[in-house]
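Page 37, top half.
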Amino acid sequence: MEKKVPAINIAKIPELQRRILFTLFLLAVYRIGVFIPTPGIDAEALKGFFRAARGTLLDMATMFTGGALENFSVFALGIMPYISAAIILQLLTVVVPHLERLSKEGEQGRKKITEYTRYLTVVLSAVQGIMISIGLEKMTGPGGEPIVLEPGWPFRILTAITLTAGTAFIMWLGEQITERGIGNGISLIIFAGIVARMPSAVGNTINLVRAGEIEFLLALLILFIMIATVAFIVYVETAQRRIPIQYPKRIVGRKMMGGGVQHLPLKINSSGVIPPIFASSIILFPATVVGLTDIPFMSRLAESLNPGGWLYNLLYVGLIIFFAYFYTAILFNPKDVAENLKKYGGFIPGIRPGQNTAEYIDRVLSRLTFWGGLYLSAVCILPSILIWEFNVPFYFGGTALLIVVGVAMDTAQQIEAHLFARSYEGLLRKGKIKGRYA
């Protein structure tokens, strides 16, 4: 049984403390930026417009930006343009020879691809900023008051520059958290935005129950669905398919060394929360612009993509399953695993080393990824459909719960890994001291 390292040991590790405090500080900076408004906007008219857009994709976009879109702050675009750019670059890696070569050049190649991702993020942010500013000029608040105070190209250019700079700053925050903090910076930024708005969503739900708009038994049912969803996420995220690996015994001198059976653990959901985030980004990128325009065709398209609609659900499930396979293929290469096993003499019982082992691992991984994609789709869609039907704030949907629970588990695992590493270092130092004076 694996021994757990007490979390209280964090106080004894200054480096881990610095990483956690650094992460919390940058997340606090991000939350402050959510409330810094973009110039030239009537804030009250904009809030009235978003109140009328409850239950639409704009509501979901507001959730992913932590309320920045509703406030139309400097962070209104959030981190989604960066995620969209990363998706585009990863897809192009498969078809563009130059990018494929870079992806195989190790750390230097990855740095170059990251640089291209940053440039593309700036371009996407600028385009999206221009389109949103044009759409906002045509929109009005609930009382017919214009949202944009002084329409025209000066407002459009200023908005595009402001939103692009905001997204670039969020991108920098995420990279700094990943390098110098704890956890994945991009996921933690989305996590912080969702968690920060959940208390207000809880308060709104309680007010709806008190006002009689939601029955008390229905609220209990929703609470039960949330708890069951969280328990299901934790169970599946920790589940593994363990493939036995046999290592032969070797004679070294006069002693028999090695041998025994180890296991290659394969998670049911190897891609984590990335597929729902990527799928949401693909849907939200055009929908955010579409939802802020008054073009009849675009408005009908936005309505058909509302959460709970059949087109939205079909598109969302398809993208989740696609990105589950796509991201798993990036993270895990069966051929490399098979070559490493063959190099060190390991083999799967009943399977020949080399190509047959790679094909076997790939077949097992494909089946697991299929079930993992279905699991992600069920968690993201089914609770959201129920909650959408009950007219409950979207923050309690399956996508939000999956991201919150998944990111929290990943971050906790990284903290635990730091604790284990430090505890092993302590044991090694003690062993050296004992050996010196033995």
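Page 37, bottom half:
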Amino acid sequence: MRIAPYGTGSVVKTAIFCFVIFIIALFLPQPGGVILAAAALGFLLFTLYFYRDPERKIPDGKGLFIAPADGKIVLKQTLDHPVTGPGSTLISIFMSPFNVHVNRIPVDGLVRDLRYHEGKFLMAFDHRSMTDNERMEITLDTAAGPLWFCQVSGFVARRIVCDLEAGQKVTSGKRFGMIKLGSRVDIVLPSSMQIKVAEGMTTTAGETVLGQAGGF
């Protein structure tokens, strides 16, 4: 099982912590020691599971905009956006602690702008988190026009990882970061896009097609 490079440090620290707890549990009266050892093992296994980073098969096709995150679409609405323009479509993907949390680039392009905002830690499924929570806003220039998407932290998450830089060329489906524990990713597609998903659907980062640019 591949472990996400963004989580290597956390996995090592967790492994050391769980090893210490396991050793302590060996010297405790039973059944308390067994319960503590089992809890430490369970915590380690969950950490490994959380930071898993499976390979994905990127769809082959022109003008495709793919999901940047695994999860469930909890909001889909039309809005006017300062980056993508009037009549754009907002798609919000909620990532539970059991989803893969590695984020992927939605489409080929050039990173125009990155904006990090400190904020609150509301539940990620609370739509107020889109504007109130800690978040990283990303703008790409693409062949179909500008694209805006945003990593949003959740109630438990306290760290957003994004290794992009302004001016960087990016490729559809490539990993660019992750959000640790419960979180969401919001993406706004321009009005020229043919939307392929609906609210309530589940997405797979790097594979699920959210929309296709008109003319392709």
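Margin note: Residues 8-26 form the longest helix (19 residues).
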